[in-house]
Structure formats: C-alpha cells, structure tokens
C-alpha cells in the first residue's frame, strides 16, 4: 500500500523545522556554492589575463633580442675591411682551384693568415656587441669558414650546418632569416641548443660574396621565461609556425617538432586559453603569438596549482556555510519546539477533556496568540463542565420521572391480580387460609410499594417471587412449582427492585398450559467474564415464532434473533407490560447493552434471559 506524503499532514514542529531549513539552509548552501564557483572562475580569469600580459611582455623582449641579432647580421655589409678580406678570401681560394675542382694546398700562408686575422678580428667585435650570441660564423662563397666563439666551442660539423644555412637562403636577396632551434655537438663534445640568424653578404653590385650566421643560445630566453613559470608554477613552450620547438622550459622537447601534438593544434588562434588532460591531470593552457616572428608561446599551468588557493578559500566558505547551516537548524529546532510546545500541551489537555476530565487548566504565561487560545480553552472547559452537569441533572430528573411512571404502571396491575385471587379464595374456602394469604399479600405490598430508584439484593428478589408463587398456589393449589438454582455468592449481589416478579407473572399468565397439571418455573444464574445471566424458564405453551420475533423486537433485540425490525410499537403491543417495564428499567440503570431477551419452543416452554453487568455500576438516577 502506497501512502501519499502531504505537507499538511505533518506535525507543526516538523512543518516549522522544514520551513526554516528551506528558507535559511538552502539559500546558505546555494550562496556558498555560488561563491566558491565564482571565486574559482575569478582566479582562472585573472590568471589567464596576467599570464597573457607576462607572455606579451616576454615576447616583446625576445622579439627585440632577435631584432638586434638581425641588425647585427647586417653589420658586415657596412664594414669595408671585412668585405675586402672576404673578397680576398674568395680570390685566394679561387686561384687554388683546378678544373677538376680538387683543392690545392695553399703556398702563401702569410696572405691567408692576414685574411683570417682581418676577418676574425672584425667578427670578435661583432660577437661582443650583443650578449647571448654564442658564435658568429662567416663563410666565403666557397664555404671556407671564419668564426668568433664566446664560449662552448664551435659546431663540430660546421660544413653540414653551412650547407643547411645556404639552402635556407637559396632565394634570399640579402634578407636575414631566423632559423629554429637546433641541437648540435661542439668541438668540445658538449651538447648545445641554439637558434640562428643567417644572412647573405652582398657586394656593391648586390652579388653574394659570403654568408654570416649568428648562433644564439636558448639560455637567453630562460631569463624571460623563468619569471613567468615561477609565477604560474607551470611550464612554457615556444614553437614556430611549423611546429618546431624553439624553447622548452623543461628542456625535454627542444629542437623537436610538435605539429601533430594536440596542445599545439588547439592553440590555433592568435591568442587564447583552453583546458586539456594529460596523464590524469588537468592543465590550463594560455597562449599568445609574436607579431614579429610568428612564434607562439604556450604556458601550461596545472589546475591543482591554479586552484590550490581556491581550494583553501572554498574550504573556508564551505566550513562557514556548514556551521551557519548547523546553527540555523539548531535555532530552527529550538524555535519550532518552543512555538509548538504550548500547542502540544493544549492537545494533551484536550485529550484529557475528551476522556471526561474537565478539571484541567491551560497555564497562560503570555498574552500572545497561544495565550489567547489557552484562555479560550479554559473558558470552554468550564462551560462544558457546567453544561454536562446541567445535562446530568436533567437526565436524573427524567429517569426519576420514568421510574415513577413505571411504578405507577406496575403497582395497580399487580394489586388488581392479587386482590382478585384473594376474593376468589375467600368465596371458595371461607376458612382460616385467607389470613395466610393476606399476610403474604402484605409482604408483597410492602416490598413493591417502596421506592423503585434504589437497589435491593438478589436474595430479596427471589423471596419476593416465592411469596408471589405462594399466593398463586392458594388460588390454584399445588399448580405452580418454583425452583431456584442460584450461586451462593450472587445472593447478596445488588439488583434493581421488582426485576424477577413481573417476568414470572408474565410466564404464568401467558404461558399456562391447561393440559398440564403443574407448571414448573425455574430461576438459575450463569456467570461469564463480563455478564451475569439470570434465566427464568417455564414448561408452558411456548410462543409462536412470529410472535416471539415481535416480542424481542419490542424489547430491542431484533438482530440477536435473526429477525427484521417491524413497525414501531408493534412489538410493544404483543409483549406484556411487565417484560417491557423491566427491560427499560435495566437499560436505564446499566446501559443499552443489557436487558431482556426471550427464547421459546412452541408446546415446550419459554425462557427469559436477563443480562446484568458483573460489577455493580453507580446508579444512573443518582
């Protein structure tokens, strides 16, 4: 069975508690959640804005550095001595070439030494202009090299590097070219990384006479990136437009190509930010692009680092929210019980009033709505008690009137029958037995004319019936036999007066069978858990079923005997006045569940059962 929950069926304190929770706790929780989310978003936005600003500043400095390197690469075009020595180098090596292009060992070393010293002296000057330039290489058009090294040695495979640089400048007309970071081994067998600016050296007729290459160690970017990574606690990556890694703050991807990497692919706009997950950890990627070189710097920040501060703030927010919720719920509980306690007290008092106790009083402490309700409750109980007392007094007077009316019905009827018996006996016998009859009649009259609103005991009721049967036997000698089988402990049980005699009288005058010489009347008792049954049986002519049903209906027992109620008053007419009066008196004294019922078998006899309570009840008539 499914029980539908309804708010209106809840107790008042639960309604108030639920209302407090909905009005206070839920807004607090939502406010805490909204505050933590907005704070996290604010931190992310500020981090992105600050990181982009630092990236732009860093890229400006890198761009200026590269621009300076490009400017330095153009210096040889303005130094005539350098250009003359480079032309001398070209002429020197041109004279020593055979048609087979096989090189010939030089035989004028002083001339070669002069060329080398002139070129390398100028290169030393160029190399000292800008900090961070590892090496400056100068090549004539035959690939013969001259260089100036600041630190770390020269490239070990310089001829291969020259071929690579020359290929990149194939279509150049003297413009500088910025080449991505390369990994190389120096002649000192150390591993180096450098990005390079290369440019053709042109004579006055704009013909190439050589090539200059300036290697810049990526350590020059470290100074620019270190501050950014220190602030963001992340890692930075610089890639060119082809996906070549120019710089990696962790030194793991330098000189590699990441054109297929998902992080590089997502950084497709000029600048922006995005999230990605790597090895189960979430990263915030912020990127921007250099307008001068096209290099893209990507800074990756772990979200755990980004939100480390927000986690602490969020914890404080949630702890504060939980404490506020607990306090609000505690206050709600106290207030709900404080408000509903007087109402529960009043409900308890109402239950006691419902059980019949009208002496209860509601203690009025305050003049609020509950106090006013309590005052009205007290007035109501006083008024109810007064009304019930009035009704009780009215019922008492009514019962006395009814009992008096019943007595007035019984006494004339009984006395008429008794006097008729004495009259007939005197006419027939004219002897001393009349005196005995009159003495017995006196006992009957004294018992019957006393007040009927008092109690007697079952012993006196049985004696009264015996006197009645004795009088009948004077009229009809030895015609009636009375047998009493009553438990000894019931003889002193209080009962209403004149309860048995009318039933016996009804049995004799309505059940006498003229075909039988004697009529036996038995009175016996049966005690059960809840009732005492007094059964008065005779061996008379019995009652026909239809008339028996009407009789029980008149006594108020139609359903007990399986008959439908007839028209009002029909049963009363068919039943004797004595049975009806006794039945009504019992119901008035003990309640509607007690009284008389009749059972009978035609030609065999009739039995009347009187049901009384086991314990004596207080008299309803007062």
Automatic annotation (TrEMBL):
PROSITE patterns given in the database record: HAMP (PS50885), HIS_KIN (PS50109)
GO MF annotation list: ATP binding; phosphorelay sensor kinase activity
Domain of life: Bacteria
Keywords linked to the UniProt accession: ATP-binding, Cell membrane, Kinase, Membrane, Nucleotide-binding, Phosphoprotein, Transferase, Transmembrane, Transmembrane helix, Two-component regulatory system
Its membrane topology: Multi-pass membrane protein
InterPro entries with a match to the protein in the record: Bact_2-comp_sensor_kinase, dCache_1, HAMP_dom, HATPase_C_sf, HATPase_dom, His_kinase_dom, Sig_transdc_His_kin-like_C, Sig_transdc_His_kin_internal
Domain annotation HAMP: ranges: 337-389
Record keyword Phosphoprotein present: yes
Main location: membrane
Annotated coiled-coil segments of the chain: none
PANTHER family referenced in this protein's UniProt entry, alphabetically: SENSOR HISTIDINE KINASE YPDA
Protein name in the entry: histidine kinase
């Amino acid at each position: 069975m499914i029980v539908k929950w309804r708010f209106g069926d809840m107790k008042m304190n639960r309604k108030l508690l639920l209302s407090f929770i909905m009005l206070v706790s839920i807004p607090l929780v939502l406010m805490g959640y909204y505050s933590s989310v907005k704070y996290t978003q604010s931190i992310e936005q500020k981090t992105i804005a600050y990181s982009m600003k630092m990236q732009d500043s860093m890229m400006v400095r890198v761009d200026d550095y590269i621009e300076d390197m490009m400017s330095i690469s153009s210096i040889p075009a303005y130094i005539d001595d350098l250009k003359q020595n480079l032309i001398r180098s070209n002429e020197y090596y041109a004279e020593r070439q055979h048609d087979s292009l096989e090189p010939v060992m030089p035989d004028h070393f002083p001339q070669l030494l002069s060329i080398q010293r002139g070129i390398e002296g100028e290169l030393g000057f160029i190399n000292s202009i800008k900090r961070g330039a590892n090496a400056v290489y100068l090549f004539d058009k035959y690939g013969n090299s001259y260089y100036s090294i600041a630190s770390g040695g020269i490239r070990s495979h310089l001829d291969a590097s020259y071929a690579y640089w020359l290929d990149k400048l194939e279509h150049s007309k003297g413009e500088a070219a910025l080449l991505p970071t390369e990994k190389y081994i120096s002649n000192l067998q150390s591993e180096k990384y450098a990005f390079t600016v290369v440019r053709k050296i042109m004579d006055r007729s704009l013909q190439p006479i050589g090539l200059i290459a300036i290697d810049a160690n990526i350590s020059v970017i470290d100074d620019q990136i270190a501050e950014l990574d220190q602030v963001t606690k992340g890692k930075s990556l610089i890639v060119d437009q082809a996906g070549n890694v120019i710089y990696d703050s962790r030194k793991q991807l330098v000189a590699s190509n990441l054109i297929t990497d998902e992080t590089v692919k997502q950084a497709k706009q000029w600048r922006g930010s995005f999230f990605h997950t790597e090895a189960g950890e979430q990263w915030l990627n912020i990127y921007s692009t250099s307008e001068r070189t096209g290099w893209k710097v990507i800074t990756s920040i772990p979200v755990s680092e980004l939100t480390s501060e927000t986690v602490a703030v969020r914890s404080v927010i949630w702890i504060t929210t939980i404490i506020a919720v607990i306090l609000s719920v505690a206050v709600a509980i106290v207030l709900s019980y404080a408000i509903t306690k007087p109402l529960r007290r009043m409900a308890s008092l109402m239950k006691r009033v419902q059980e019949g106790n009208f002496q209860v009083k509601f203690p009025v402490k305050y003049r609020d709505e509950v106090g006013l309700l309590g005052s009205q409750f007290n007035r109501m109980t006083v008024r109810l008690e007064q009304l019930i007392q009035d009704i009780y007094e009215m019922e008492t007077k009514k019962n006395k009137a009814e009992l008096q009316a019943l007595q007035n019905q019984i006494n004339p009827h009984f006395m008429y029958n008794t006097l008729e018996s004495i009259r007939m006996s005197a006419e027939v016998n004219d002897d001393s037995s009349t005196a005995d009859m009159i003495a017995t009649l006196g006992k009957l009259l004294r018992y019957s004319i006393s007040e009927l609103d008092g109690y007697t005991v079952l012993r006196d009721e049985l004696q009264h019936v015996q006197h009645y049967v004795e009088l009948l036997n004077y009229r009809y000698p030895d015609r009636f036999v009375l047998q009493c089988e009553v438990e000894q402990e019931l003889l002193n049980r209080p009962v209403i007066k004149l309860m048995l005699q009318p039933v016996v009288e009804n049995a004799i005058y309505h059940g006498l069978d003229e075909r039988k010489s004697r009529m036996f009347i038995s009175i016996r008792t049966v005690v059960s858990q809840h009732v005492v049954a007094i059964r008065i049986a005779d061996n008379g002519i019995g009652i026909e079923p239809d008339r028996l049903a009407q009789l029980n209906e008149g006594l108020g027992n139609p359903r007990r005997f399986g008959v439908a109620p007839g028209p009002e008053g029909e049963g009363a007419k068919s039943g004797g006045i004595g049975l009806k009066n006794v039945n009504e008196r019992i119901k008035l004294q003990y309640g509607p569940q007690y009284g008389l019922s009749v059972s009978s078998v035609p030609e065999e006899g009739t039995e009347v059962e009187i049901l009384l309570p086991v314990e004596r009840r207080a008299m309803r008539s007062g």
